[in-house]
Structure formats: structure tokens, C-alpha cells
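Reopening this ticket.

The earlier resolution said the output was attached, but the attachment link was broken on my side. Pasting everything inline this time so it's all in one place.
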Amino acid sequence: MAKRGKAVQFSRTGNPAEVVELVDINEPDPVSGNILCRIEAAPIAPSHILKLSGAYGEHPDLPAIPGNDALATVVEVGPDVTRFAIGDQLLLPHGSGGWRQFSSVNASDVNITFPPDGDPLQLSMLLANPPTAYLMLTQYVRLQPGDWVIQNAANSSTGQYLVQLANHFGWRTVCVVRREGTEEILSGCGADLVIVDGPDLADRVAEATGNAQINLGIDAVAGDATARIAACLADKGTLVNYGLLSGLPCQIPPSDIVFREITLTGFWLHKWLSEKSSLAERQQMYSLLRDLVVEGILHAEVEATYPLTKAKDAVIHAMREGRNGKILFTPQAED
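Inline output:
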């Protein structure tokens, strides 16, 4: 039967907390090839905040339901669907809009399913941050056991996943943070070094690592933080930017590009998923990451969960400086 449920949507961009609104939506019975899902958990990511504000690289037709990632349970299957059964757990396909109670999706678009015994909050965060960390670690530099990687915004969810993955594969991490007080979280993830950002970052990194050659840097801050990460890299190193937490353009001295041959490139998961990967590659990657989440090797700190009726409060919390964990919606929860 069709399901009537609540959803969070936006009809304009602007201040994220002001543009979200709660609406009622009827999800029709699934047609041929489709499945109807109940959403169990859906995280709020920085990309969602950017999309609400109108500053993201992709602009949906409005009104739209935010949220690219969510854990869902199949409650109905349409005609001709043989791959799924009622009760199966899966990750909503990219772009499905996860901030809702129910969603009908094409079964062929689902990349990954889950065993029934995983943590729903942790599993719901699998779509974006873990693959972002995994692909940045593996697509640009062929790292060898014992190699160093440096990243800023290291206490973010992507930063935590990056540390856990590096630790799993035998790589060492320099984690640059913007404030004191995050060392315990990152050390718990397996970070080798945690260093507060500053003008003399390169000197302190060189001293702490014994002048190690660092060939891969990861930047989520942009602005002059990009230059400080570049200064820590060995000649011919690669610097991957995937965020703009500072709100400023990436800044890197021409001397680093010309004389030291530092490569600055950008990573956007949406581009990889939609244009640069095959279905087999996506399924292989998500299967690997799923198993690591289920085994507890990959996890992210969760600071709070909210029902959909508290959407404005949830978005405000997700935008708060100094958070130490993710904010998620649990759409089936009551006030």
C-alpha cells in the first residue's frame, strides 16, 4: 500500500536553517522494477548544508528533498523485482533525498545492501564520507606500507575515516586540526600525529616525522591552509582538495607549483560516481567499505540524532563550530 510520511524539503536556497520545511508526502505503490523503503537513519553532511545555501556544485530542481545518503529497509517490492525482499537493508541510491520517512527507488540503482546486524547509524553514513576518504587515499598516489599522509580538518567525519583506512592499510597519518581538544578522538581512530595548524606547520611536521617524505596531502579547508599543507609535502607531491571550510579559494605559492612541482587537484565524489566509475567498481568499493563498517574498523562519532520534526534544530546543530561528531536524522523517531 502507498505510504504517507513526512519529509524535509527546501523550495529556495539561503540560510540552511531557514529554508528547510516539514511536509507530508505520499509515496505510491512501487511500479515495475521499484522498491518502497522505510528510512531508518540519514546523516547531515557539509555538502547538504552547501546545497541548501546554494553554494554546492550541483543545483537540484526545486522543491527538493536533501540528503544523499540514508539507510533504508525494504517494505514493498514492485513487479519483476527479484533482487530484494521485504526486510532487506540497503543504502539509498545517490540523489534519492534521504531526509524523509519513505522513499521509492529503482532497484537497479542500489549499489550496496547490508546484513541485518549492523549499527544503523554507522551504516547510514557509508555513501559519502568513507568512499571520499578511500578514493583520495588510493586514486592519486601509490602509497607503500609505512608511508605518511597529511590532512587538515582531520577531526571531521571524512578525516576520521581517512585515519582509520590509513591505519588499516598500514599508512601513517599527520592530522592537522584547527583547535586543541580533538587529540583523543583522532588518537582513538589510530592517528599517528595530531598537530594544531599554524604558520610554522611545515617545520613542526618535519620535526615530528623525522623529515619524512610526504607525497600525499588532503585539504578540506582551502584558503591559506592549502599552502601550509603544500609546504609539508615532498617535491612532486600531490595535494587533493575536497572542501572549502574557510570559504576562500585555494592558495598555493607559484614556487611550489613551478619549482617543487606540487600538483594541486580536486576531488568530488559525485563526479566519480556518475562519470568516472563502472557499476562493478562502485559495488566492489562499497562492499569493501561495508564490511569494514560492519566489522567496526570504520566508524564515525555521532553527537546527536533528531526526528524530522526538529529539522531546523538539526541543521543549526550540524552547522555549529566545534562539534565532535555527526548529526543524523532518525526519521521514524517521534518528537
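Reporter confirms the inline version is readable. DSSP finds twelve helices and 15 strands in the chain. The radius of gyration is 20 Å.
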